[in-house]
């Protein structure tokens, strides 16, 4: 049966073999227009996910300190009564939501419930690994919805900074068949990987530069400085070029080579390639976006480099996604131009240094908001909080102290064990669905999948759960779907109302795609309306000036082929602690030995993988594991005060034999 994978944003086409109620196998769909038969181990694991021995089949509710199976009516009645009491006593702001799901209908209904309650307390993975990109879109591009994607079909000079798409599929880049894509670009041009580790992608690239961790910004600042001194290649309108030149002036070849600990000759060779290229495309990943304020600066300089070399909104460079459900090209002069100071709002009361960004609060603030009594109930929309939030030692007691902690989930895990109410929802193969967050797609497109198998046990559609909960709280959310009469497809049809292609046509074929405009007139018009690309937002200029050299040994993140964040533990991908042989020798740690990694905030113990694929000064541990949980090393107070992004990469650490 034809479907699409919902593990990551690449949403590859799959064929699912089913016998009765048993899912036998998942294979790539050769006829899929984007992935063309490609799948990865994560997608092929969907049968194991569906038949997981710890799958949740019935609602559960805590009584006498224990979670016990119950009925939907009893669970939702109790949850609704307790939430209503909390709202009556403490106001709607005492109820918080955490949004983390790939289920489109459930996500939208949860958003509707959040809006109906009227609480400002909203959290998402954005402040765990992704704030830099919308921030730079906002400050430099004048609109945070300006979502740039590399023109992979035509790129001939691609810089991949802190991103390993061969394993991650680029995540926010959405790169189906990443190995073939990287090889093809390297064949016709150059692919440079900038990463402290010789990654799987670096092994396919034409060149690899391994700077000291947390100094990617210096490499980009050097390139920008040299382009400005050499004369920019772009004729697009810009503003702030003099301020930019002053900001990057310190990043000479000599200074950058020393700070980043790379050879001057390698930096010069990189610049020669940039200068000779027709177009320079730059993509960043979690190696950048998890570095708090350094992420903002690095992402900014990546955009500036593309603007100066004429890559923005041009073939071979970056194109901007207009959306499929909504169409940005139709907005015209109504497409907002945001102020150069940024778009922020009031933050959580317990953290006066933090602010709201995109109407969300920093995840790092959640334990403090609970401890202060400001948040008394949390509705978790499919997130693995224990393995994703910073400072686990503070998070777990905070979650345990909540009056209500309701979570939707398909498999029992460390987070559901802390809940007061567990709401089992359909897994990806049990529900019809359309692709969510269409601006993350590699095409201007949407996909549809019917349900492949019937739901196990008493699992229900997530949208139905939130519609029923809303009803018990006195909110009718029927404009999206009526829990008494609507089907899953009815709700999906509402989500596609007004889209480029209607639901019936999409459902009949399985996907729909609109032509991609490049260059896009709506982007050029927007840039002209704001007076040109804003090259030197004061906020980012100040952050660059304030950066200090990193510590001698720091934590860096790593994604894995058989795991995505807190998902797919059952595939057995080990959380190895990757260290350079010289760092291992200095700490007395050998390959295969247990090693304790310690920060100022905590420690974890894992198995050392001593390997010269990583440079000295970097300790790489994949995130999302319970056993070797990197969040025990992080500090909820160590955040970028602009966006609230916590520091997951660049945390100073030490190594010790366990």
**CATH T-level topology of the largest domain:** Dimethylsulfoxide Reductase, domain 2
Helical content stands at 25-40%
CATH structural architecture of the largest domain: 3-Layer(aba) Sandwich
Main sheet: which strands, in order across? 5-4-19-18-17-6-7
Mean pLDDT: 95
CATH class assignment of the largest domain:
Alpha Beta
What's the name of the CATH homologous superfamily of the largest domain? Dimethylsulfoxide Reductase, domain 2
Give the N-to-C terminal Cα separation: 49 Å
Overall outline: globular
> Would you identify the regions where 5 or more consecutive residues have pLDDT less than 50?
none
Strand content: 15-25%
- Domains (count): 4
Number of helices: 22
What does the radius of gyration come to? 24 Å
Pfam families: Molybdop_Fe4S4, Molybdopterin, Molydop_binding
GO molecular function, one term: oxidoreductase activity
Family: Belongs to the prokaryotic molybdopterin-containing oxidoreductase family.
Domain 4Fe-4S Mo/W bis-MGD-type: 1-54
């Amino acid at each position: 049966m034809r479907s699409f994978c919902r593990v990551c944003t690449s949403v590859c086409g799959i064929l699912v073999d089913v016998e009765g109620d048993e899912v036998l196998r998942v294979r790539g769909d050769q006829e899929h227009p984007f992935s063309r038969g490609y799948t990865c181990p994560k997608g092929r694991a969907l049968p194991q996910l569906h038949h997981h021995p710890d799958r949740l089949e019935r609602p559960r509710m805590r009584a006498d300190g224990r979670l016990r199976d119950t009925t939907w009516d009893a669970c939702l009645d109790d949850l609704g009564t307790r939430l209503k009491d909390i709202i009556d006593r403490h106001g709607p702001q005492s109820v918080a939501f955490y949004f983390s799901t790939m289920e489109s209908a459930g996500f939208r209904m949860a958003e509707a419930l959040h809006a109906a309650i009227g609480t400002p307390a909203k959290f998402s993975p954005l402040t765990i690994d992704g704030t830099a990109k919308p921030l730079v879109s906002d400050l430099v591009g004048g609109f945070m919805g300006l979502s740039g994607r590399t023109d992979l079909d035509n790129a001939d000079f691609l810089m991949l900074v802190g991103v390993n798409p061969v394993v991650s599929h680029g995540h926010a880049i959405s790169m189906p068949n990443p190995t073939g894509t990287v090889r093809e670009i390297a064949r016709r041009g150059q692919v440079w990987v900038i990463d402290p580790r010789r990654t799987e992608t670096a092994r396919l690239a034409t060149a690899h530069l391994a700077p000291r961790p947390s100094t990617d910004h210096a490499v980009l600042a050097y390139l920008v400085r040299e382009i400005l001194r050499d004369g920019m290649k772009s004729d697009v309108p810009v503003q702030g070029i003099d301020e930019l030149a002053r900001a990057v002036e310190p990043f000479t070849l000599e200074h950058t080579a020393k700070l980043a600990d790379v050879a001057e000759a390698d930096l010069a060779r990189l610049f020669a390639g940039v200068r000779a290229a027709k177009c320079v495309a730059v993509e960043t990943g979690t190696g950048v976006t998890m570095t708090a304020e350094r992420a903002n600066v690095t992402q900014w300089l990546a955009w500036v480099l593309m603007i100066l070399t004429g890559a923005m909104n041009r073939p071979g460079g970056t194109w901007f996604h207009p959306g499929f459900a909504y169409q940005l090209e139709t907005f015209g002069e109504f497409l907002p131009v945001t102020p150069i100071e940024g778009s922020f709002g009031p933050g959580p009361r317990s953290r006066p240094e933090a602010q709201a960004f995109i109407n969300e609060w920093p995840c790092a603030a959640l334990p403090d908001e609970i401890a202060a009594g400001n948040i008394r109930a949390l509705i978790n929309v499919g997130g693995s909080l224990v393995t994703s939030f910073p400072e686990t030692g503070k998070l777990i007691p905070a979650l345990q102290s909540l009056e209500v902690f309701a979570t939707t989930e398909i498999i029992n895990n460390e987070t559901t064990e802390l809940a007061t109410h567990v709401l089992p929802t359909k897994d990806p193969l049990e529900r019809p669905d359309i692709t969510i967050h269409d601006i993350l797609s590699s095409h201007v497109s949407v996909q549809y999948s019917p349900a492949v198998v019937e739901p196990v046990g008493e699992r229900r559609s997530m949208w139905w759960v939130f519609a029923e909960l809303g009803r018990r709280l006195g909110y009718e959310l029927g404009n999206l779907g009526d829990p008494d009469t609507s089907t899953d497809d009815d709700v999906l049809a509402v989500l596609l109302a007004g889209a480029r292609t209607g639901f019936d046509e999409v459902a009949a074929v399985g996907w729909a795609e609109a032509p991609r405009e490049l260059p896009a007139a709506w982007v050029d018009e927007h840039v002209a309306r704001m007076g040109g690309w804003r090259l030197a937002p004061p906020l980012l200029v100040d952050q660059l000036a304030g950066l200090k050299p990193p510590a001698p040994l720091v934590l860096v993140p790593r994604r894995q082929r058989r795991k995505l964040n807190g998902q797919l533990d059952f595939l057995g991908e080990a959380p190895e602690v990757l260290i350079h042989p010289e760092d291992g020798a200095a700490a007395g740690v050998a390959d295969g030995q247990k090693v304790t990694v310690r920060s100022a905030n905590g420690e974890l113990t894992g198995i050392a993988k001593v390997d010269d694929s990583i440079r000295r000064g970097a300790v790489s541990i994949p995130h999302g594991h319970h056993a070797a949980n990197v969040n025990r090393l992080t500090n909820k107070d160590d955040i970028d005060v602009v966006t609230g992004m916590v520091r997951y990469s660049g945390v100073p650490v030490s190594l010790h034999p366990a």
